[in-house]
Design goal:
It contains no helices and 11 strands. It is mainly beta. The strands form 2 sheets. Strands 2, 4, 5, 6, 9, 10 and 11 form a 7-stranded mixed beta sheet that branches. A 4-stranded antiparallel beta sheet has the order 1-3-8-7, with no helix packed on it.
């Protein structure tokens, strides 16, 4: 079992930056692919970015590519999401999720462990 805790959310002006962290506990998750997913009010959950267990492969949603960067530090059991050039449409609750295996996927249904989420609000 893996427990995930997100942090780093907050209120930021458009054009600003935030770095989200996802810390794992319970057991090491260096063998797990991890993703960031977001959910805006009144909308379905949306894939944002994912990274393989080794960190060698990543994938991004078109809406964030070039602005967001996912990375991981397996020694610290932590995955990060650096968000730059934030826009009001990036406002959402951001969730961290992990797979039971190391291969990344953009399909939200294939993620086995989920955190509680952290709110990101971008003002215009």
């Amino acid at each position: 079992q893996v427990q995930l805790v997100e942090s780093g959310g907050g209120l930021v002006q458009a054009g600003g930056s935030l770095r989200l962290s996802c810390a794992a506990s319970g057991r090491t998750f260096r063998s797990n692919a991890v993703a960031w997913i977001r959910q805006a009010p009144g909308k379905e959950r949306e894939f944002v970015a994912t990274i393989s267990a080794s960190g060698g492969s990543t994938s991004y949603a078109d809406s964030v590519r070039g602005r967001f960067t996912i990375s991981r530090d397996n020694a610290k059991n932590t995955v990060y999401l650096q968000m730059n050039s934030l826009r009001p449409e990036d406002t959402a609750v951001y969730y961290c999720a992990a797979r039971a295996i190391g291969t990344l996927t953009t399909s939200l249904y294939l993620y086995d462990y989920w955190g509680q989420g952290t709110q990101v609000t971008v003002s215009s």
